[in-house]
């Protein structure tokens, strides 16, 4: 059992509510605040002359939101979608894009995880793709922190 001083040292403000988002062969670790909503997979309207990572767009809350394949944006192969595929709608917070939101096709239901800085260790042995900022190890396993600036900058190509 933790002593009162240990509890005080690890206050609520030290915890970061995050989500582990399953994509093909890995999980993305993002702060909860990045995710606007996870929605059921729906009809994705194609975008003419779009890059291969741009799967199309969806209508979400009255807005056209571009949908991307994280795997293709990260120079990987986008495999067959699982039966539990969903769309994670993310807030475009960097200001680099004309879009306020964009969606990533995910392969299951994201898992909530609350972390402190001590709960996350860099996986220095992992090699990173261009869409990945850092590989990490958490109490729930390995994950990658996506490079949100890179992903949002890709949206300028639409």
From TrEMBL:
InterPro entries, per the entry: CheW-like_dom_sf, CheW-lke_dom
One Pfam family, short name: CheW
PROSITE patterns in UniProt: CHEW
A GO biological-process term: signal transduction
Name of the protein this chain belongs to: CheW-like domain-containing protein
Residue ranges of every copy of the CheW-like domain listed in the record: 15-158
Organism, scientific name: Reinekea forsetii
């Amino acid at each position: 059992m933790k002593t009162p001083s240990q509890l005080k040292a690890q206050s609520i403000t030290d915890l970061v509510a995050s989500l582990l988002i399953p994509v093909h062969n890995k999980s993305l670790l993002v702060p909860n605040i990045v995710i606007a909503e996870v929605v059921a997979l729906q009809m994705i309207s194609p975008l003419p002359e779009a890059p291969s990572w741009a799967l199309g767009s969806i209508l979400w809350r009255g807005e056209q939101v571009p949908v991307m394949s994280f795997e293709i944006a990260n120079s990987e192969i986008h495999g067959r979608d699982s039966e539990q595929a969903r769309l994670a709608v993310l807030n475009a917070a960097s200001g680099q894009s004309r879009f306020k939101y964009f969606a990533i096709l995910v392969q299951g239901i994201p898992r909530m995880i609350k972390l402190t800085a001590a709960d996350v260790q860099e996986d220095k042995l992992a090699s990173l793709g261009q869409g990945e900022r850092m590989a990490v190890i958490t109490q729930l396993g390995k994950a990658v922190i996506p490079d949100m600036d890179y992903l949002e900058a890709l949206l300028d190509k639409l």
